[in-house]
Amino acid sequence: MALLKVKFDQMKRVKLAQGLWLMNWLSVLAGIVIFSLGLFLKIELRKRSEVMNNSESHFVPNSLIGMGILSCVFNSLAGKICYDALDPAKYAKWKPWLKPYLAVCVLFNIALLLVTLCCFLMRGSLESTLAHGLKNGMKYYRDTDTPGRCFMKKTIDMLQIEFKCCGNNGFRDWFEIQWISNRYLDFSSKEVKDRIKSNVDGRYLVDGVPFSCCNPSSPRPCIQYQLTNNSAHYSYDHQTEELNLWVNGCRAALLNYYSSLMNSMGAVALLVWLFEVTITIGLRYLHTALESVSNPEDPECESEGWLLEKSVSETWKAFLESLKKLGKSNQVEAEGADAGQAPEAG
């Protein structure tokens, strides 16, 4: 028995075709929106690719761009089919291709749903990517004279200013790396020598941060050196006083920024997916309603449309049987090829 059977007369078929034509062209616009969102996200990720450890983060924007292009192509074609469905002569050329096209539409909807889920679930991989990328970026902050790394200081400084953050997890991350280039150190100074000797790796570590960590909203002039030395500054206690530095780490700031972007894009993609599913269901009803017209010479006769020709369980069983038959036919062909090769070898 057919699933969700609906009766159609000529007027209902015409209205269904016209409504689907309009919805398909609206979906073309939605595909352009998806494409634009993916392109925007890709540009935003490329802006800060220096502080990202790998290219896995580009999977979501690339997928959104691909889904946007496919949406425009499929819905343009579906709009043409719905327009030609009003004319029996024009519809005849689409008739053999409509069922395969519906199968492709179902696969497209599944792919779009997976991309939508990726938009919501990418936070974990993005967090590890940013953690390693920012750590490496801070390590190369001092290499202003090294080719390929000379831009890293500007990148980190602009990042900390734009996102109002400091370090990877916080400002203390700068205490653990040498962020001042040897070019600007006076090695004849006793203080510099003592600091380098006191470190196992021979690095010049200070309890200070770059200028880009300073919070301009603070009423006190920025204290960026000797942050843990209370005696170095007047009326200062680093444990109780609110420091005039950005408190948040850049990893959390960037993660929140990109997560909010991808959640918004995921919500838009989810709405587009629901719209695409509705169109696919409508196309299925239009296809079956036109196929079941009892008298093609009488366009005003009634017909029936349905979502599935059989029940869900019967459809699933038929699908599994077709897969088994396909597997057996491939096995027989492989055995036939092996039997043909044996006499040649003899």
State the gist of this model.
The chain has 346 residues and is mainly α. The chain has helices at 10-47, 59-84, 88-121, 123-139, 152-163, 190-197, 250-291, 312-345, and strands spanning 6-8, 303-305. The mean pLDDT is 82.
Structure description:
- One of its GO terms (biological process) is photoreceptor cell outer segment organization.
- This is Peripherin-2.
- It is found in: Membrane; Photoreceptor inner segment.
- The protein is 61% helix and 2% strand.
- With 346 residues, it is mostly helical.
- The protein has two domains: 192 residues, no CATH class; 77 residues, no CATH class.
- Strands 1-2 form a two-stranded antiparallel ribbon.
- Helix 1 packs antiparallel against helix 2, helix 3 runs antiparallel to helix 7 and helix 4 runs antiparallel to helix 7.
- The longest helix is centred in the last third of the chain and has 42 residues.
- The model has no long low-confidence stretch (mean pLDDT 82).
Break the fold down into its secondary structure elements and pairings:
Layout: E1 6-8, H1 10-47, H2 59-84, H3 88-121, H4 123-139, H5 152-163, H6 190-197, H7 250-291, E2 303-305, H8 312-345
Antiparallel strand pairs: 1-2
> What percentage of the residues does DSSP assign to strands (E)?
under 5%
Across the major sheet, the strand order is 1-2
Distance between the termini: 56 Å
How many DSSP H or I helices?
8
Key terms:
346 residues, mainly alpha, two-stranded antiparallel ribbon, 8 helices, 61% helix, 2% strand
